[in-house]
Amino acid sequence: MMSERELYLFFKGEASPEQQERILLWLEQDAANREEFVRCRKIFDALLLSDQNSRDFARRSQRLFPRRIMELARIVAVVALMAGCGWWLSSRHIDNLARRTNTIVVPAGQRVEITLPDGTNVWLNSLSELSYPVIFTGGERRVRLTGEGFFDVAHDSRNPFIIEAERYDVRALGTKFNLFSSPTSGEFSISLVEGKVQVSERADNANSIILTPGYEARLVKGEFVRQEIPNPAVFCWREGLFCFDNKSLGDLFLLFERNYDIRIVYDAATLPKSEFSGKFRMSDGIFHALGVLRRDATFSFKWDEERNIIYIRTSSQT
User: What residues pair up with 103 in beta bridges, in sequence order?
Assistant: First the structure.
């Protein structure tokens, strides 16, 4: 019988060569052992998700919007198998594993860091979803993203790394970049930190753009617009921070909606026209952020707890 402690060491990459060999042999002995392996992996990944800022998240979820958060948390999909287990299973399992897809869904207010089977590191922002195969085969490494992710792609010139984001493909070899894709708003942007990427519309390869470090591409009326990255600090969401530069109140409200899974209702025509720069800790919660913004912009807000809506009123509204 394999202990859960040994399996957890294996999942964390801390098992000794002898322990790794024991687990390999144990997996080969019986289908029931492989089912136990999957069960323990699910528990491990659920703990991995909940461990990130768990105390702040629990306190905040109780204070802000407990029902919506817990509903979302209950439907979080966890990884079915260890990303690298294809290296340890015999060749007859490879085809079955290649057809399996892992999906990670990040609850509101949380962020997750994972390592893909090829060694690529991915940071997923709040309310984002990433799907990828248990092992990469077929000459390419293809994943699917909804929401926001920061990718540090492992270099492999023979097997390009491709991200499907709505109707676009992002193609990279070894590079670091931030990608945001929203199916609801239609927003799409990619900011390149290191390396080189090509972004193409899947149905029209002519609509494509190649980025070099320090530049970003945004979708404007169906066309890519390239510009220098105005403020690299915006990537600090990986550290649990909102970092913003010259953003309007409307832009910030959209940011809060995405990260706190809440609806904010306001009249855009009456909002103060000021622009804001600064940073907030996500764990401080939306009420703290709104309270700070009120110091420089005149507005009030009211939270409808039952419907999970925040209503914004300005001084010009009667």
Answer: 131
For residues 185 and 128, membership in a common domain is answered with yes
The verdict on 288 and 227 lying in the same domain is: no
Q: How far apart are CA 225 and CA 26, in angstroms?
A: 54
Can you say whether the dihedral through the CA atoms of 218, 221, 222, 224 is positive or negative?
negative
Q: Quick check: 36 pLDDT over 50?
A: yes
| CATH code: domain of residue 220 | 2.60.120.1440
Task: Establish if 14 belongs to a structural domain.
Answer: no
In CATH, what number is assigned to the domain containing residue 250? 3.55.50.30
DSSP-assigned letter for residue 5: H
Pick the closest to residue 275 from 246, 255, 254 (CA basis): 246
How many percent of the chain have pLDDT more than 90? 30
If asked whether residues 131 and 191 sit together in one domain, one would say yes
Q: Taken in order 24, 29, 77, 174, is the CA torsion positive or negative?
A: positive
178 pLDDT higher than 90: yes
Q: Which pLDDT band holds residue 318 (cuts at 50, 70, 90)?
A: low
**Range with the poorest average pLDDT among 59-73, 112-126, 265-279:** 59-73
Q: Which residues, 6 or more positions from 157, have their beta carbon under 8 angstroms from its beta carbon?
A: 173
The whole-angstrom separation of Cα 263 and Cα 257 is: 6
Structural contact between residues 110 and 49, judged by C-beta atoms closer than 8 angstroms: yes
